[in-house]
Amino acid sequence: MGPVIFSSTLGTAIEWYDFFLYGTMATLVFPKVFFPKSDVFVGTLLALFTFLVGFIARPFGGALFGHLGDRIGRKSTLIATLLLMGIATFVVGILPGYATIGVAAALILTLLRLCQGLGVGGEWGGSVLLALEYGHKSHRGFWASWPQMGVPIGLILSTVVVSIVSATTGSNFLVWGWRIPFLLSGVLIIIGLYIRLRILETPLFVAVKSQKHEASAPILDAFRYSTPEILLSAGARFVEQAPFYLFTVFVITYGVEKIGMSRALVLNSITIAAVVELFTIPLFGYLSDRIGRRIWYLIGAVLMAIFAFPYFLLMNTASVVLFPLAVILSLALFHAWVYGPQAALIAERFGTRSRYTGASLGYQLAAPFAGGLAPIIAVLLLNGRTNLAALGLSSVTIGFGTGSWQAVSFYMIILAVISFVSVLGLKELTHADISSTEAYTVTNADPVLSATD
Prior knowledge:
Blueprint: H1 2-28, H2 30-33, H3 40-71, H4 74-92, H5 98-101, H6 103-132, H7 140-148, H8 150-169, H9 173-177, H10 179-183, H11 185-196, H12 203-210, H13 218-236, H14 238-259, H15 263-291, H16 293-315, H17 322-347, H18 355-364, H19 367-383, E1 385-388, E2 393-399, H20 405-424, E3 440-442, E4 449-451
Helix pairs in contact: 1-3, 1-4, 1-6, 1-7, 1-8, 1-11, 1-14, 3-4, 3-6, 3-18, 3-19, 4-6, 4-11, 6-7, 6-18, 7-15, 7-17, 8-15, 13-18, 13-20, 14-15, 14-16, 14-17, 14-19, 14-20, 15-16, 15-17, 16-17, 16-20, 19-20
């Protein structure tokens, strides 16, 4: 299992480095480099909208690469997703700004973000299945949680690189220094390809191929047998995905611009939180194998709702101790609680021959609503009203009340409720056998998977 876990985790970490790097730059750099004609708030909002494009693309990436993964194999598909993501990120690093090519810069940036979204949309399902289908007989929650660690690793790597480059380039960071972290992606691509080319196909997919049970149309197969599981899996993600981007992207804007914390303190707090989460993600994945993933996840949704107000109360103290504490708790405890067991919770609901597609769709369908929109909604809820004059719409004003952090807290609670209700509709499959090469559905009577072909 060692080489497989290393490959799936490191490959995922490289892709998430690329994805998070864009998120960090969307709040710190892109409003000034690609949207300089806008005021500070609208510029940030426009940068976050390009951030959203990546999330809109993710379900399409899940469908496209899920189809390929269920038809030709997990390994080959993961190589394609890594190349797409890495090349798009590298090109961002050499893209001229608004001052050089005008509005074309923002349009090309959006297109590259679209490519990133397609790559990440196909990456998650393959990486998780690589671990899950090798270690499916026992401790699925634990083994499948390792690719999930690629998220905090990528977050740590992107944040540390940005911090180092920002400190060393100083005033030149906004001029050319910000490009260096994107260019480093080229080196990471080479490392990732070397690792992924050395692994073998998963034994469960090999069994499907040898018995010639591949799905001719994996997307149709997934929806034919597992539509409720796809939709409920998407709903289950709201409590994890949206808060995660509040905890890692929105918090930068909130901490620096609203509270007045230093950018270095905010970024360092996120880095420390991600380091701690490296240990809590596999721990919570392991505990879900012992306790049961469904009940563990339900408890996590409740805890997230309870944390919604204390999170802001701790940050609002502007304390150099309590602000980092809020950030660390948000990621290492409340996010990891649901993120650790999430991969197994979703992937074990689908048959091997359409598992890549079904798991990817269930995971990625939530992305546009619970991922990319989250920091945008939070910014609007926080500020209340904004005029769209910078977009040429001077007569248009978006109103979200008077604006307050309490509104963002209520938003978090609503997200937790959506996921709680969704997980209530899922069956407990922690100890179910998922090795069948036939298509199957989850029976209503008990947690035993029944063949349908």
